[in-house]
Design brief:
The structure holds two protein chains of two kinds. Chain A is α+β, with helices and mostly antiparallel strands. Chain A has 16 helices and 15 strands. Chain A has a five-stranded mixed beta sheet. The C terminus of chain A is likely disordered. Chain B has a five-stranded parallel beta sheet with strand order 2-1-3-4-5. Classes of the chains: A alpha+beta, B alpha/beta. The interface between A and B is medium-sized, with 32 and 28 residues.
Chain lengths: 524, 133
């Protein structure tokens, strides 16, 4: 222990007291054992507002709030001061103008030879600090309330070991636990067995420590054992001063519903793709079957045609077969020709669907092609008593595929004969400024308005199959042919009055429509 | 360069890989007093043609065939001084304008072949046999 430094006798007691009187930052004054004010300094004036003249001799109780006075706080303080020698107190006090300030008070009892002479009171005005503290406290309180009231997110804290140290209402809602049930428990509680087996919770904390943050989506457990799909963010919380780990903030969202909707959408997409793929496979298969049927059918058609001819020839020379046999053979020819025709249409459809319907464009007269088709159909038409009337208003010529155009015309005329109930069929060729137009009008059963949309679709026939044969492919193919020429096909119809089909062809098909595909010998 | 003039006889060469179709065409032609000879592809066709004293009055040519297809056959045949003048009828489903030009065929026989069309086209190139009545 070092020798006490002798205090140089620079100041007398009264000089020292005079200096204390000048101190401005602290109220320093004496009170007698009953609390009456004996001395006063500049600091007391500045803080409390009274001058020495105004306050000396008055009771110090006036510095207390009404509430404190009523509760006897001044007397209690003096009693404690007397008993303990020195006490400290913080609390609201009242200035002369009635305003309050936050005072930090030290009260020291002064004894003279065992007798209490009074107290020295040193008071600091800590209002500003108190206000700052209050603001901080309120802000923390607000934050806590905010976090607690959030319902859509589970927000909670973990200590450095992963034990739960706080819990909000979102956590309660999502995970199903009350705060009292989980505080203090390890957060691995929320993880399904397969994640526990791989120490996944510990792994998450390790990454959060290493990288500051961990984020993932995955399955978690509710209290009732149910799984939910969670989006999880874990943030390491470090002490701002020391940088040591204080714990982890964990924010969890329940994305189960969103995941369900996404899953459903994904499954629907997949189903649609499978359906599309199945349709493509079907079309491809139909095309292959038709292609494979074609050659043997061609051979069959030629054979029966040949046999018929031979028999007819023999008949002309007087040694024919029974007439019954001849007409049956005639039927066989017709049936094989019909099959061959069907196979050709199916092949057309397969080509259209696969975008391989090639157009061989050449200068073509619409009237010439129409005349050829009309001539071809005169015989079959007359068998149903149908008269074909051809009217020409000009001779439009364009860059068209003559074979395909004939096919489209034949479809319309065959349809008109088929559904025309034996009434005359009017066929008109017109020259428009920009191309050619063909009208085919029958006066038959007509098409119901609700069916008009369907007739150009694949397999889109308007009448029941049992009434009329065929697959209903003709108009679909016809429309595809016309559209491949950059043209359009229209229909107007009234049930039981008849139907008019109109084809319009531009003289020069659009470039895209004149795309010349591979020769059609290739398998579809 | 003097090219051999087209002949006009009953000899018809059918170049078609499908045996049934080839035979059916042959039967129809036989029934109508022609002398059809078959070949399953372009290579066989040349074997039937080269070094033989008689040339057909017309060749019915399929396009899609194994070994040597109709295009290859036609390309070689057109350049051949002996065989280049033999008329060729291309049998096809449907060819575009370009294909028609590039094949340089004398006629096209649309598949499926109808007996009347077949006989009419062949008759264009051959002496129509007189009915044996």
């Amino acid at each position: 222990v070092s020798e006490p430094t002798p205090v140089p006798a620079l100041l007398t007691t009264s000089e020292a007291f005079a200096f204390l009187t000048e101190v401005r930052d602290y109220a320093i004054y004496m009170i007698d054992p009953d609390g009456r004010i004996l001395t006063w300094n500049e600091g007391a004036h500045a803080i409390k507002g009274y001058t020495a003249e105004q306050i000396i001799g008055e009771s110090f109780t006036r510095f207390f709030t009404d509430e404190d006075r009523t509760q006897g706080k001044p007397t209690r303080l003096l009693a404690r001061g007397a008993a303990e020698g020195r006490i400290q107190d913080e609390g609201w006090r009242v200035r002369k103008d009635g305003s309050h300030f936050w005072a930090d008070v030290v009260l020291t009892a002064v004894y003279d030879r065992g007798t209490l002479r009074g107290f020295v009171k040193v008071t600091r005005d800590l209002t500003v600090r108190k206000q700052a503290e209050e603001q901080l406290r309120q802000s923390e309180e607000n934050m806590r309330l905010l976090v607690e009231s959030v319902k859509d997110y589970a927000i909670f804290m973990l200590d450095p070991e992963g034990r739960i140290s706080s819990w909000n209402s979102g956590a309660e809602r999502i995970k199903g636990y009350l705060a009292a049930e989980v505080i203090g428990r390890h957060f691995s509680l929320f993880y399904p067995p397969e994640l526990l087996a791989t120490q996944h919770p510990e792994h998450e904390l390790e990454i959060a420590i290493r990288e500051g943050r961990y984020e993932e989506e995955g399955w978690r457990l509710r209290k009732n054992g149910e799984r939910f799909w969670a989006h999880v963010v874990i943030t390491a919380v470090l002490d701002p001063q020391t940088g040591t780990l204080r714990g982890f903030a964990k924010v969890t969202r329940d994305l189960t519903e969103r995941r369900r909707i996404e899953e459903q959408a994904r499954r629907e997409r997949q189903r649609a793709e499978e359906t599309q793929s199945a349709l493509e496979q079907r079309d491809e298969f139909i095309g292959l079957v038709a292609h494979e049927l074609r050659t043997p059918l061609a051979a069959l058609v030629l054979k029966v045609q040949g046999i018929t001819r031979t028999i007819e020839e023999a008949g002309r020379q007087g040694h024919g077969v029974a007439p019954k046999l001849e007409s049956r053979l005639q039927g066989a020819v017709q049936q094989t020709e019909r099959i061959a025709e069907l196979v050709e249409r199916i092949l057309d459809v397969a080509r259209i669907v696969q975008g391989k319907l090639a157009m061989g464009l050449a200068p073509t007269s619409l009237l010439e092609r129409t005349t050829r088709v009309v001539d071809r159909f005169r015989d079959p038409a007359s068998r149903t008593g149908t008269e074909l009337r051809l009217r020409a208003a000009g001779d439009p010529v364009g860059e068209w595929d003559p074979v395909r155009i004939e096919q489209a015309i034949a479809t319309l005329i065959a349809n008109a004969i088929k559904y025309g109930s034996g009434h005359p069929v009017q066929i008109t060729v017109e020259d428009t400024d920009t191309g050619g137009r063909l009208l085919v009008t029958d006066h038959g059963i007509g098409i119901a308005p609700e069916d008009v949309e369907r007739i150009f679709l694949r397999f889109g026939r308007a009448v029941p199959v049992r009434h009329y044969g065929g697959l209903g492919l003709g108009l679909y193919v016809a429309r595809s042919i016309v559209e491949a020429h950059g043209g359009a096909i229209h229909v107007s119809s009234h049930p039981n009055e008849g139907t008019t089909f109109m084809i319009e062809l531009p003289k020069h098909p659009r470039p895209a429509a004149s795309d010349r595909g591979a020769p059609e010998e290739h398998p579809p | 360069m003097s090219e051999p003039a087209p002949v006009c006889n009953e000899f018809v060469l059918i170049v078609e890989d499908d045996l049934d179709l080839r035979e059916s065409i042959a039967e129809v032609l036989e029934d109508n007093e022609y002398r059809p000879v078959g070949a399953a592809n372009g290579k066989e066709a040349f074997e039937r043609l080269r070094g033989k004293p008689e040339r057909p009055s017309v060749i019915l040519l399929d396009i899609m065939m194994p070994v040597m297809d109709g295009r290859q056959f036609r390309a070689i045949q057109r350049e051949d001084p002996e065989l280049g003048t033999i008329p060729v009828v291309v049998m096809t489903a449907h060819v575009d304008h370009e294909a028609r030009r590039s094949l340089g065929a004398d006629a096209f026989l649309e598949k499926p072949v109808h007996i009347d069309t077949l006989l009419a086209i062949v008759a264009q190139f051959c002496r129509k046999p007189q009915p044996s009545a």
